[in-house]
Write the structure tokens for this entry.
Amino acid sequence: MPGVTLVLGGARSGKSRFAEGLVTRLPGPWTYVATAQAWDDEMRDRIRQHQADRVPGWTTVEAPLDLAGALARHGQGPLLVDCLTLWLTNVMLAERDVPAAFVALEDALAACAGPVVLVGNEVGLGIVPDNALARAFRDHAGRLHQRLAVLASQVFLTVAGLPLKVK
């Protein structure tokens, strides 16, 4: 599994489990680059459950905002980034330059020595959101996924726990 693999899917589609399986088929050590921030008890529980569901042997790197930096520092062995859309949320809420963050991420991915699996939520299949922030998020996420799909050697869409190979 050379280079970059992009795994997209809806909520509870099985994308993280599938992505973890792609990485754990490779020789370790494996690095899990986590972008979530635990703002409340419910999110803390979700993070704990994600951690408990993983097989032993992962090193976790927290990167809620500086995803490019985390990839630059830890890009030697197999990496899993989960998830792009949480990272995008963090970037937008911190009022960072979104296009510049995308370029930095692409540059960091190009410099990674080992395989990288990226997980993101496909958010463009539903209705048009009713507010400007949600529409901007949906648009940025769609553009990010398109850009990364160009870089990726493989792209999967997960539906009902089943991975569909798109590229």
The longest strand covers residues 4-9.
